[in-house]
Write a structure and sequence with these properties.
Layout: E1 18-29, E2 32-40, E3 50-56, E4 63-69, E5 76-84, E6 99-107, E7 115-123, E8 131-132, E9 147-155, E10 160-167, E11 170-176, E12 183-188, E13 199-209, E14 212-224, E15 235-243, E16 248-250, E17 267-271, E18 282-287, E19 302-303, E20 310-317, E21 320-327, E22 335-345, H1 346-353, E23 361-368, E24 373-379, E25 385-390, E26 395-399, E27 415-419, E28 426-434, E29 437-442, E30 447-452, E31 461-465, E32 472-481
Parallel strand pairs: 1-19
Antiparallel strand pairs: 1-2, 2-3, 3-4, 5-6, 6-7, 7-8, 9-10, 10-11, 11-12, 13-14, 14-15, 15-16, 17-18, 18-20, 20-21, 22-32, 23-28, 23-32, 24-25, 24-31, 25-26, 26-27, 28-29, 29-30
The protein binds beta-D-fructofuranose.
Keywords: Glycosidase, Hydrolase
GO cellular component, one term: cytoplasm
GO molecular function: sucrose alpha-glucosidase activity
């Protein structure tokens, strides 16, 4: 029997109570990383949306704060972003720069389509309290029924704010001098990308290619909603290209659909705004669920979690510029070393793993590239989650068919795989495991699989299997991950 109260992640953000979905308004300000999120404060399923709020100084230990934005006469509060208005372009601030949230007001209309319009709120006290702008909404569009999830950033070259916003099955790019008056620049998405669902939660940001700032490319993230016709449910795609302040021109490679994550449970993810230039990272976090079954997952008292914070980079692999994800380095602070082996044979590794009983941990394994290896994690009498590299198929996979509770949705069970590109003659797997999730980063973040699992609390076993008796792990490290609130 599986106890559903044991599913709360140890090092993942979860709300104390009730429902959450998309991360919203992620912004760094005065030493704090803010995370707002779609939240139903009165129920464990999706309902009238508010913005919940949490902060962290280290991307591991979260402090949940009171609800930041609640519904009003313009509707409930859907997804959106937040920025620091350093130069007081909005006129909301006096002496000190403050935060501006740009979000969708979603208004239900009896016997008609809901109306989605964009609004502002600002905070003069580090996000603790918010004042809604008196002239809300600031942007509406009569054409699109689905017009939502504005992500705003300051564009140096044109000295304007840019808003990327989902418009049905395209995105629109607006610009503004003051966050209040918006002008349409262009629309993107017709005839390109996946249209398996409504487009949601876009993001747009520049990244250096292979760390070379003179080789900058723009990355566009676009989440697509669940459509019953597709057993993958909701997922997130990306495009690379150029952006001049008005329009986005995709690279050749973006004419093939490319996914941010090959698992089922990384949706609506966007990046943090205002990370200081001396840090320079592009940090990302997604909602660790899927609209296909998000309202049915078997947790108690709360529902929904975020992925770990991840750093995004663009790297050339096999001649193609790819979006690469790595766990944010701050997670290393939560590590407690459990096992560290170098040049270890498969029998040595097996023997060591068999003695371990772990729930919340991280595994790093490296071995010569032409050999298949499979780990069985969170394993017990009835459960196991299989994670491995199939060298013949050249893929990394997660198989959660026997992972624990799977019967709350017909498409929950299954195997999810991603293609691997050769790196340097080695395979590298980095796997984050928690009470109800696995996050797999293969080949230094080239392929990522994020999947929820609901195993029995007693399923703590770890084992490894390969057909190659001579396999040697050049290295294998395991760390338990237990953040301690300061
Ligand atoms: C994406 C989404 C957004 C919307 C929000 C509503 O998961 O559907 O498009 O703003 O969730 O909660």
């Amino acid at each position: 029997t599986i106890t559903t109260s044991d599913f709360r992640g140890i090092y993942h953000f979860t709300p104390k109570k009730n429902w959450i979905n998309d991360p919203n308004g992620m912004v760094f300000f005065k030493g704090e990383y803010h995370l707002f999120y779609q939240h139903h404060p009165f129920g464990t399923t999706w309902g009238p949306m508010h913005w919940g709020h949490a902060v962290t100084r280290d991307l591991v230990n979260w402090e949940e704060l009171p609800v930041a934005l609640a519904p009003d006469e313009h509707g409930t509060i859907f997804s959106g972003s937040a920025v620091v208005d350093w130069n007081n372009t909005s006129g909301f601030f006096d002496d000190e720069p403050g935060l501006v949230a740009i979000f969708t007001h979603h208004l239900e209309v009896p016997n008609d389509h809901p109306i989605q319009r964009q609004s502002l709120a600002y905070s003069k006290d580090n996000g603790r309290t918010w004042i809604k702008y008196e002239d809300n909404p600031v942007l509406e569009d009569k054409m699109f029924v689905d017009f939502r999830d504005p992500k705003v950033f300051w564009h140096e070259q044109t000295e304007k704010w840019i808003m990327i916003i989902a418009c049905g099955q395209t995105v629109c790019l607006y610009h503004s001098p003051n966050l209040k008056d918006w002008t349409l620049g262009s629309e993107f998405g017709t005839g390109i990308g996946s249209h398996d669902g409504v487009w949601e939660c876009p993001d747009l940001f520049p990244l250096a290619v292979d760390g070379d700032a003179s080789q900058e490319k723009w990355v566009m993230l676009v989440s697509i909603g669940a459509d019953p016709a597709f057993k993958e449910g909701s997922r997130t795609q990306y495009f690379t290209g150029d952006f001049n302040g008005i329009s986005f021109v995709p690279d050749e490679a973006s004419h093939t659909v490319r996914w941010v994550d090959h698992g089922r449970d990384n949706y609506a993810g966007v990046s943090w705004s205002d990370i200081p230039a001396e840090d320079g990272r592009r940090l990302f976090m997604g909602w660790m669920s899927n609209w296909m079954y998000a309202n049915q997952t078997p947790t108690e008292g709360y529902r929904g979690a975020m992925t770990i914070a991840r750093e995004l980079t663009l790297e050339t692999r096999d001649g193609e510029i790819l979006l690469v994800q790595r766990p944010a380095r701050e997670l290393e602070q939560a590590r407690k070393p459990v096992l560290s082996l170098q040049d270890a044979s498969i029998s040595q590794v097996s023997e060591q793993l068999n003695t371990l009983r772990l729930v919340n941990y991280e595994i790093h394994a490296e071995w010569a590239s032409d050999l298949s290896v499979q780990f069985a994690l969170r394993s017990g009498v009835e459960n196991e989650t299989l994670i491995g590299v199939d060298a013949t198929e050249n893929e990394v996979y997660v198989d959660r068919s026997r992972s624990g509770i799977i019967d709350f949705h017909e498409h929950f069970l299954g195997r999810h795989a991603a293609e691997l590109k050769a790196v340097d003659g080695n395979q590298r797997l980095c796997i984050f495991v928690d009470h109800s999730s696995v996050e797999v980063f293969a080949n230094d973040g080239q392929a990522v699989i994020t999947d929820l699992i609901y195993p029995d609390a007693g399923s703590k076993g770890i084992s490894v299997h390969t057909d190659h008796k001579d396999l040697v792990f050049s290295s294998l490290h395991i760390y338990e991950l237990s953040p301690v609130q300061a």
